[in-house]
Sequence to fold (216 residues):
Amino acid sequence: MKDYVDTNLDDWRRERPDIDTSAWELTQRLVRLSMHLSHAERVYEPYQLHKGLVDVLGALRRAGPLYQMSPTKLCQAVLISSATMTSRLDKLAHEAMIERVPDPSDRRGVLVHLTPQGRAVIDDIVTKAFDTRRQELQALSNEERAILVILLRKLLVSIEGPVADAGVTAGGERSAASHTGLRHTHPAVKRALRNARSKRGDGPPRCNVENIKAVR
Fold:
């Protein structure tokens, strides 16, 4: 049984027998699978949301009670700049899915809080998205899935480096996973980190919080 990648690589082996195509056996399949899996945005359509907005809602939902994060940590969680985050938060606030609330630990700061409506929306999206993914993986047994997860994690960590687990602050705010020291080599990841990184060096990506704070 052959797939598209097999026929593609057969051509290359014929035309360039001097090239080792074994790496493409995997990477080209990952690329094509990514193309097929990207259609998950259909799940967002009933709510007129795009993936970037869902990423923000998801980060807040995963934070757990009280479902809120500082703008800086939210930027770190989804790897975007403060300007992009401001735009996303404005749209979500307009739809009453998030709200900006005062930060009790910082008189001048704000926290981004997931509203009950926002939580209901992201819960519905996640439920449907996970169900869709399960259907897409029916060709693999549970054991095959487990093995594939281990191998893909190993490959991803070799490229990005490990990520420290998140923690919960004294005020109940869930902190973003630490990206300190990661070897983000993919160009898209590099661009995201470069846009959000502090001027002080190679530490975790930071946002200009003043650009995100709303007028109270």
